[in-house]
Write a structure and sequence with these properties.
five-stranded mixed beta sheet
Length: 441
């Protein structure tokens, strides 16, 4: 069985990433390549603003990936696309069914409940994903109702929605401009949860925090299901902009944040020749804004009616580029005592040949490949073989030498001139002997 090649695109507030993976006959995913382009001036809060600019950068990413040794000469013709950012939010939906007699709850019944939840009207939003949250059959809470019997079914779902324009601009930049087929649009946060959260963490209760450049998304899992989903319009770029008020460009402020910023220590450890300013002054801005972001994150379980320490014993799992800020995991832990905080990482079953791709920055786009690998659809194609035709032996008119035609022309020329040299000599001799001489009389 031939392996299946899949491709993914993830558009964030500060970057656009693309990746190609290969799924073998056992279902194992191997990540072949990840490439990145800057998106600061083309994407805002995770949504495409400038379709043309985003499309051009996707074209560059596609070319870079196709030139990878492990991918060449394949061409990317389709992609799976991540959707996230400020526009995404969660909403609740409830569906109830009552039967006259005990009825088995089959996969078809569950699918119908799912479709009914998706069909619930939202005037200004598009439902991107429907996730089950709770099933109650005949007043009994059942985690997996498939195969059970009952008369009354009460089902609660989480609907992940976004503004229609967000999805439209994705299609415009990827499908319309680049002629890439879209195999599926997947919610980035739920894909990340499938990648970095264990089943035990979801059952016990945990909070997944995607700390990005302009947004921070919080997903809370309990009893194996997503119970809360919210996107906060704050991110690590808020820290960068604070540093810019000290007279730095955005690029320089970003560099200072990464090299000097410390969410815990007032005076970061730094060599004097690495920075000619006042590190303590810079870090005051870093610590103040990081503390504000951490406080907003810690408050989220309360909006879900949960206690972080009592209801979410598996703690906080942190992903996203903002989580690289020095001391930020410790800051979250200090905000609430006895809370576990860990950084998300790739599971060992995903094969990655290049250790550089195991960075926390690549988790988002690899998470899309991970979901796509469950039922993979081919996203690449081999180029059509080019048959080299030697024009020198081509019967058709065209550039180059055509010996066959030249031979024919030569024959015709020789024919018009009396044939070959031997023929001409024999003809003259024959004529000489046949012509009468005047002395013969």
């Amino acid at each position: 069985m031939e392996p299946t090649y899949i491709a993914a695109i993830e558009i964030g507030s500060s970057h656009i990433r693309a990746a190609v993976g290969r799924v073998d006959e056992t279902g194992t995913l191997s990540v072949l390549g990840v490439e990145e382009e800057c998106a600061i001036d083309a994407v805002r809060y995770g949504a495409v603003q400038n379709v043309e600019e985003v499309s051009n950068r996707i074209s560059k990413l596609k070319l870079k990936l196709e030139n990878h040794q492990t991918i060449h000469p394949r061409k990317i013709k389709a992609v799976y696309v991540a959707l996230g950012g400020r526009s995404t939010m969660g909403a609740s939906a409830t569906v109830e069914r009552a039967y006259n007699e005990e009825t088995e709850i089959t996969a078809d019944v569950l699918r119908q409940l799912n479709d009914e939840a998706r069909a619930q009207a939202f005037s200004d939003r598009t439902v991107v994903q429907v996730l089950p949250r709770q099933f109650i059959v005949d007043n009994m809470d059942i985690a997996n109702p498939r195969g059970t019997f009952g008369r009354d079914i009460h089902a609660e779902f989480n609907l992940i929605t976004c503004k229609p324009m967000v999805q439209k601009n994705l299609v415009r930049a990827i499908s319309d401009r680049q002629q890439l087929a879209i195999k599926g649009i997947l919610v980035r946060q739920t894909a990340l949860a499938a990648l970095v959260l264990s089943s035990d963490e979801k059952k016990l209760g945990c909070m997944l925090v995607d700390f990005g450049a302009e947004t921070t998304t919080v997903s809370i899992y309990k009893n194996g299901f997503l119970t809360y989903f919210a996107t906060l319009p704050i991110g690590s770029r808020c820290i960068t902009r604070d540093i810019m008020t000290l007279g730095y460009t955005e690029e320089k402020a970003e560099e200072i944040k990464r090299n000097i910023g410390d969410a815990i220590n007032a005076e970061p450890t730094i060599r004097k020749h690495d920075f000619d300013g006042d590190p303590a002054e810079v870090n005051n801005y870093v610590r103040a804004r990081a503390g504000e972001i951490a406080a907003n994150i810690i408050e989220q379980p309360k909006y879900a009616g949960l206690s972080l320490t009592n209801d979410l014993p598996a703690g906080i799992i942190l992903v996203g580029g903002g989580s690289r800020l020095r001391g930020f995991p410790q800051l979250l832990q200090s905000q609430q005592s006895n809370v576990k905080v860990r950084l998300g990482s790739l599971p060992p079953e995903i094969r990655i040949s290049d250790p550089r791709l195991q960075s926390i920055d690549t988790l988002d786009v690899i998470s899309i490949l991970n979901i796509a690998a469950r039922v993979p659809q081919e996203c690449t194609e081999m180029p059509e073989p080019t048959v080299a035709v030697d024009s020198a032996y081509d019967e058709e008119d065209g550039p180059g030498i055509n010996p066959k035609k030249n031979r024919e022309k030569k024959k015709e020329k020789n024919k018009g001139n009396g044939g070959s040299s031997i023929d001409r000599i024999m003809g003259r001799l024959s004529k000489w002997f046949q012509e009468p001489d005047d002395n013969d009389e």
